[in-house]
Amino acid sequence: MSQKIYCTASFKPKPGKEEAVFKTLQSLEPNAHREDACLLYTVTRQIENPFADGTGFPIVFHEIWANREAFEAHCQRKEIQDFFAQNVESPDGDIEDANVCVYTDEPWNFDAPKV
To answer: For the CA atoms of 65, 42, 90, 69, what is the dihedral angle to 10 degrees?
Structure first.
């Protein structure tokens, strides 16, 4: 049974704040990479491409964590909480909207034995 947690955190910066938000999110990467259970933690920005012209938030964090507990511990780190308080929740923050979702790769009714 897979215990991995996949997180997609999407951000819509306020107009003119795209580069600042991207740089702020990049600054979170080094400390997250120090967390033992962090398997992937990469911020990306949307680019134009004729083969992928869908719409979405222009900045997305792709995260993979070894398990749910590690992801939830990461979310409670002061640096992460401060980021959301200052940039997402505050009316003065640089982010207009955010959408954070977690996923599993385990199928429904997966019957693998627990190890």
So the answer is: 10
